[in-house]
Amino acid sequence: MDCKLGIVFVWYLVLECDPRSSPKNAVMKIFTAVLTFLITTAVFAQEKQLKNKFNYEFEVGGYFSLTNKLPFWQASNQFGSIPKELPAFLCRQILKTKKDTLNKFFRLDYGAELVTLLGRQPQLIVPEGYISAKIGAFQIYGGRRKEIYGLVDTTLSSGSISWSGNALPLPRVQIGIPNYTMLFFKWLSFKGTFAHAWFGEQNYAKGYYLHQKSFFLRLGAPSAKVKLFGGIVHNVQWGGTPKVKLPEGDDRLFNGKFPEDWFVYGNVVFPFKKIWGMIPKYEEYNKFELGNRFGNHLGSMDAGAEITIKKSRLLLYKQFIFDDGQLFGFTNTDDGLYGISLTPNKSAFKKIVFEYLYTKNQGHYVAAFGRLLGLSDRHPNEENFIFNHQQYLDGWSYNRNTIGTPFLTPEENLRSEKQVDNNYIFVNNNRVWACYLGLANQIGTINFTNRISYSKNFGSYDVIGKPITPVTQISYSVNTAIPLNKLKAFLNVNIAVDHGDLIRDNFGSYVSIVKRW
Fold first, then answer.
1. Residue 63 confidence (pLDDT) above 80
2. Are 195 and 35 a contacting pair, CB within 8 Å?
3. pLDDT tens digit string along 169-201?
4. DSSP secondary-structure letter at 418?
5. Prediction pTM value
6. Contact 27, 21 (CB under 8 A)
7. Is the peptide bond before 87 cis (omega within 30 degrees of 0)?
8. Are 27 and 18 in contact (CB under 8 A)?
9. CB 321, CB 358: distance < 8 Å
10. Rounded to whole angstroms, how far apart are CA atoms 362 and 324?
11. How far apart (Å, rounded) are the C-alpha atoms in residues 489 and 494?
């Protein structure tokens, strides 16, 4: 059976993946072929074990706030499944395969989440809907899936700097090794992913794509008391067509579209000036991209350490954000997310996370580390404009929600006097420093999760937005999970408060009942 499937898979590639076709179609077909082959193989391996292998969760609840908008920490990092206007009623259903502790070589997983929001603006949202196949250490999946990329405390962080779970997941196909796997030695492990995703139609562009890859190394055996981590997350928006009419002679596109041929895709995956010895026909591309890079590149380089002392775990991490290459010239290495996560062994506090976010450099001066080494500025006058872009005017967003850290808030979420008279600016406030504290604790059988942040906000450099007279913002939320033993469910109560001069003062609540089977 496996031999026949392999022949079908190879034949599919031969027939469908014409090298003359565009990379977007070829990449999609290759991913589809691999996904079909692996899933079919896994189905045959597990077809007798698929029954009664899923978990089901049902939640009903309601939102209320003084301003009819969600407070900051109720809206942030919810994977886009939030109401636009309040009050609102929520019904959430989640179906997933059960976690299997057996280390099986073949495994088929699936998941689906459906969120129904009723209120002033009814919505039907599908945050998750995927099917995946695992063969050994490798995994491939297609669909929407909730994931966070980058070295960070994924359960209590304010959000990974480039991919935080703040926006609805993009539909994608992805291959990779999602868990650390030994590489040559017991003390050396790695993991990585490679994905192609679709932005679809947004406010100012349509039909464009996401290329994303990640790679991480771990020094230290799984049982070691000290482990070191390092890696990279690389995201690129590319291809597609603008929906806005640009001025005559504008150099940001060619023939009304953003290029998406094989040379472009090569430069998306490997963002260098020349790859594979190929020399493009320069007249086929616009001056904007030839002078910069094809697509909108951003991501982070991460470093961290995990220390285990008497079963207590301390995690230290730094995410260095990059946009157009300044990171390697040490121009903006002070920009990024700094974090400490402590998981005590025996304590009423289950986890404590402190983070500091800084994004004020953006290539405008050599960072402290570069100055210490006596380095000159290798990228003078090359500003980042973090989460904004002059081609993809929707910026680093999906359905108008920030994909990365929620502290860089969309323009429409600010007070009206802090906004700019330019609909093409996604985030005017991208120069910030913020402190964040997350606490997870338990009293008896009741679990509490506290989040509090204090930020100082400086707007953006006036080339693309406008400076904001520095304003402060405080946001707080507490989430309480109370067991309802007779119902075999629990009551979820969330209270959140905003106060400051960046967004409107607000008080909001969310109450729900959650039952799992």
1. yes
2. no
3. 999 999 999 999 998 888 999 999 999 999 999
4. G
5. 0.85
6. no
7. yes
8. no
9. no
10. 10
11. 16
Measured at the CA of 394, the angle between CA 388 and CA 398, to 5 degrees, comes to 110
- For 50, 173, 433, the CA distances from 142, given in Å and listed in that order, are 19, 4, 36
- Which amino acid type is present at position 277? G
Confidence of residue 373 (pLDDT cuts 50, 70, 90): low
- The C-alpha angle with vertex 353 and arms to 350 and 355, in degrees rounded to 5, equals 175
pLDDT at position 10 is 37
| Strand pairing category for 88-97 and 467-484 | unpaired
Residue type, 203: N
* Biggest alpha carbon–alpha carbon distance for the chain: 72
Segments in 214-294 forming alpha helices (H): 262-269, 287-291
- For the beta carbon of residue 97, count every other beta carbon within 10 angstroms: 16
**Angstrom distance (rounded) from CA 33 to CA 39:** 10
The DSSP 8-state label assigned to residue 160 in this structure reads: -
Q: Which helix (H) or strand (E) holds 2?
A: helix 2-16
The two structure tokens encoding residue 224: 């070691």
For residue 259, say if its preceding peptide bond is cis, omega within 30 degrees of 0. Answer: no
Determine contact, residues 494/477, Cβ cutoff 8 Å.
yes
- Strands 397-398 and 241-242, how do they pair? unpaired
Which is more confidently placed, 234 or 381?
Answer: 234
In angstroms, the CA 6 to CA 3 distance is 5
Strand, coil or helix: what is 243?
coil
The residues near 265 (Cβ < 8 Å, ≥ 6 apart) are 23, 24, 27, 211, 238
Q: Which two tokens stand for residue 404?
A: 């990365």
C-alpha to C-alpha distance for 420 and 432, rounded to whole angstroms: 17
Using alpha carbons, select from 178, 187, 168 the residue that is nearest to residue 133. 178
pLDDT tens-place string over residues 402-455: 999 999 988 888 888 878 767 778 888 888 999 999 999 999 899 999 999 999
Q: Which of 190, 157, 73 is nearest to 508 (CA)?
A: 73
Residue 281 is classified by DSSP as -
Give residue 371's pLDDT: 62
Q: How far apart are alpha carbons 215 and 100 in whole angstroms? A: 25
Q: What local confidence, expressed as pLDDT, does residue 310 receive?
A: 87
The tokens describing 109, both together, are 């997983």
> Nearest 5°: phi and psi at 41?
-60, -45
Find, among 121, 239, 204, 241, the residue nearest to 397 by Cα: 204
Identify residue 206 by its one-letter amino acid code: K
What span, in angstroms and rounded, lies between the C-alpha atoms of 266 and 272?
A: 9
Residue with the two structure tokens 């994924």:
154
For 331, the token pair is 């121009």
